[in-house]
Write a structure and sequence with these properties.
This protein has about 350 residues and is of the alpha/beta class. It has helices spanning about 15-30, 40-45, 80-90, 105-115, 140-160, 175-185, 200-210, 250-260, 280-300, 320-325, 330-335; strands at about 1-5, 35, 50, 95-100, 120-125, 165-170, 190, 215-220, 265-270, 305-310, 310-315. It contains 11 helices and 11 strands. The structure holds adenosine-5'-triphosphate, 6-O-phosphono-beta-D-fructofuranose and magnesium ion. Magnesium ion binds next to helix 4. Catalyzes the phosphorylation of D-fructose 6-phosphate to fructose 1,6-bisphosphate by ATP, the first committing step of glycolysis. It catalyses: beta-D-fructose 6-phosphate + ATP = beta-D-fructose 1,6-bisphosphate + ADP + H(+).
Length: about 350
């Protein structure tokens, strides 16, 4: 069996560990051969491949990014579509695709599988927003980076008696904000799942300041204050026509300053959260998912992806994976909110 691996959507620490896990298990145990598609679905559509032998994955589990490159290319556009992609796979002698990506990549994979292509999936997202898997690799690394950044913001905030606003990733869900905010002892955590008034934010900030603390407010990029209809977007649309988020922290800072009189500064962590080496937890999770993905190719489990349930790696159908976002449940928010202010 000759398998083409692709990484698609935003990159994420741990992608290389998945690739290594799949190639090691596949070549050593399952008798498989591998190639890499360059830049996600773009490589599939254009037939642009790289060799992927055991020697190519040596030592890459600890490397950030993806050695294959990634993109947000839609495989149904341009020279894409199931028939032409199948012709390309036949020409290149590729029997099956292993798609590593988020809900968009897996939605595309599902449509192609429904049209007869042989594809298995590995879920990826720093946002941790896929309901079918308990955790996605990259999330732990992003939380670690965000927490470290907030620890730093707190010392400079303390020195100047300022309110510090830290903006983290999280398009639809607030998992990174919730975990890093709790870890760093934030005085307010603002997430997409919970519309919150500026008066409430100001109250939390003022209460922390009254106790002599420099307030720390953590905000997920997809947060919408209750006076707004949509998340803040000022950077146009992405390749799939969706608003690019980012910048809400800078918007909130002057409002907090106006309402409280406390000097306020905002920092947007942005892509720093997705760069650099994965944590040990993410390397292990990603390696296990890659190994399991090689196994499910062997079982011809087309239209399925590997996932983490508790401590086990399981197999779930794409439709289950795509059905629902894993939002922060009310009780997890309430638990964190007890410590606000
Ligand atoms: N329903 C769909 N049908 C076909 N193609 C899709 C669909 N949804 C998304 N795609 C394509 O897949 C690409 C990857 O999706 P997306 O950009 O959402 O990344 P992702 O895999 O979800 O990762 P991330 O976590 O970074 O969002 C999109 O840019 C788009 O071209
Ligand atoms: O890397 P890009 O294309 O700017 O995308 C950023 C988006 O990707 C993610 O990191 C993962 O979906 C989101 O948190 C963020 O909104
Ligand atoms: Mg997506």
């Amino acid at each position: 069996m000759r398998i083409g691996i692709l990484t698609s959507g935003g990159d994420c620490p741990g992608l290389n560990a998945v690739i290594r896990g799949a190639v090691l298990k596949g070549t050593e145990i399952n008798g498989q051969e591998f190639v890499g598609f360059k830049d996600g679905w773009r490589g599939v559509v254009n037939g642009d491949i790289l060799p992927l032998e055991r020697s190519h994955v040596r030592g890459i589990a600890k490397q950030g990014g993806t050695i294959l490159g990634t993109s947000r290319t839609n495989p149904f556009e341009g020279n894409g579509g199931p028939e032409r992609i199948q012709e390309t796979l036949d020409r290149l002698g590729i029997d099956a695709i292993m798609a590593i990506g988020g809900e968009g990549t897996l939605a595309a994979a599902k449509r192609l599988t429904d049209a007869g292509l042989k594809i298995v999936g590995v879920p990826k997202t720093v946002d941790n927003d896929l309901d079918a898997t308990d955790y996605t690799f990259g999330f732990d690394t992003a939380v670690e980076i965000a927490t470290e950044a907030m620890d730093r913001l707190r010392t400079t905030g303390d020195s100047h008696s300022r309110c510090m606003v830290a903006e983290v990733m999280g398009r639809h869900v607030g998992w990174i904000a919730l975990h890093s905010g709790m870890a760093a002892g934030a005085h307010a955590i603002l997430i997409p799942e919970q519309k919150t008034s500026m008066a409430q934010v100001a109250e939390w900030v003022q209460s922390a300041a009254n106790r002599g603390r420099a307030p720390l407010v953590v905000v997920a990029e997809g947060f919408t204050p209750d006076h707004a209809d949509d998340p803040h977007s000022e950077r146009g649309l992405d390749a799939f026509g969706r608003p690019r988020l980012g910048g809400i922290g800078e918007r909130l800072a002057p409002m907090i300053e106006d309402l409280t009189g406390i000097e306020t500064r905002a920092t947007t962590l942005g892509h720093i959260q997705r760069g650099g080496v994965p944590t040990a937890y993410d390397r292990v999770l990603a390696t296990r998912l890659g190994m399991a993905a090689s196994d499910i190719v062997q079982e011809s489990a087309w239209g399925q992806m590997v996932a983490l349930r508790g401590t086990d790696i399981v197999t779930v159908g794409f439709e289950e994976a795509l059905g629902k976002l894993k939002v922060v449940p009310q009780h997890r928010y309430d638990e964190a909110a007890m410590l606000f202010g």
